Amino acid sequence: MNKETWRFIDSGFGSPSFNMALDEALLEWHSEGKIPPVIRFYGWDPATLSIGYFQKVEKEIDMDAVKAHKLGFVRRPTGGRGVLHDKELTYSVIVSEEHPDMPKTVTEAYRVISEGILKGFHRLGMDAYFAVPRTAEEKDSLKNPRSAVCFDAPSWYELVVEGRKVAGSAQTRQKGVILQHGSILLDLDEDMLFSLFKYPNERVKERMQKAFKNKAVAINEISSKRIELEDAKEAFKVGFEEGLHINLEPYELSQEELDYVYKLASERYESDEWNFKR
């Protein structure tokens, strides 16, 4: 059976606004039939706190701490909670809702796309698997997450190793296209992460940070050998090809495409109206 060819873009390290604008532009171009489905890898310069589309900055985020750590800041077009993008591989997948291999429901499509990430972890020699919330309490906490921190919250078909979450992803559907992007943590500065959010008091913060250690983990904390960014890129690129039964063809953006992305970045993702007014 012939495998479908998707585009593969490794856009390297980009600013927060560029990263979100490129994901949005790819979604748009795919919806217009200009490009086939895409898998993209990227990093962040500077390290960045991204927040979910529906989060309230004033209520949840300590912007003084964000500035003190010299972090970038951006609101994602996808839902979910706050993510510190630092020592990680970030991926995005752009594919039509009508694609024959994409289930109609969000959770099932999430599982199919995440199969590529699962295979990537296996290629790194890690015993990753999908966890499904089973108890009424777990299912209820999906609807009412107590924490503003992404990796602190359970979700359907999340990827875990040794019972702890190793990748956090979010999805949106616009213009008939699925955009799923997420973080694969290589290393994590937990103290920095927890300094970026607001808490009722110090005790609550300490309790949440302590509980977090049991829920989430970075690859290099549990890997038998040190995984560098290039190792991760190689493993997850092949993982996506295996998991989604596709060929990935490298693609470089044209100057015209880049100009459009920069325009979108400055008009939307660098504007206070987008990032703060919710």
From TrEMBL:
Domain BPL/LPL catalytic span(s) in chain numbering: 33-248
Keywords linked to the UniProt accession: Acyltransferase, Ligase, Plasmid, Transferase
Pathway(s) annotated for this protein in UniProt: Protein modification; protein lipoylation via endogenous pathway; protein N(6)-(lipoyl)lysine from octanoyl-[acyl-carrier-protein]
Site feature (Lowers pKa of active site Cys) residues: K165
Gene3D superfamilies xref list: Bira Bifunctional Protein, Domain 2
Pfam family, one: LplA-B_cat
EC number: 2.3.1.181
Active site (UniProt): C150 (acyl-thioester intermediate)
A GO molecular-function descriptor: ligase activity
Domain of life of the source: Bacteria
SUPFAM superfamilies given in the database record: Class II aaRS and biotin synthetases (SSF55681)
Catalysis performed (reactions): octanoyl-[ACP] + L-lysyl-[protein] = N(6)-octanoyl-L-lysyl-[protein] + holo-[ACP] + H(+)
Miscellaneous notes: In the reaction, the free carboxyl group of octanoic acid is attached via an amide linkage to the epsilon-amino group of a specific lysine residue of lipoyl domains of lipoate-dependent enzymes. The reaction proceeds via an octanoyl-thioester enzyme intermediate.
Family: Belongs to the octanoyltransferase LipM family.
Oligomeric and partner information: Monomer.
PANTHER family, A to Z: OCTANOYL-[GCVH]:PROTEIN N-OCTANOYLTRANSFERASE (PTHR43679:SF2), OCTANOYLTRANSFERASE LIPM-RELATED (PTHR43679)
Protein role: Catalyzes the transfer of endogenously produced octanoic acid from octanoyl-acyl-carrier-protein onto the lipoyl domain of GcvH, an intermediate carrier during protein lipoylation.
Name listed for the protein in its UniProt record: Octanoyltransferase LipM
Taxonomic source organism: Robertmurraya mangrovi
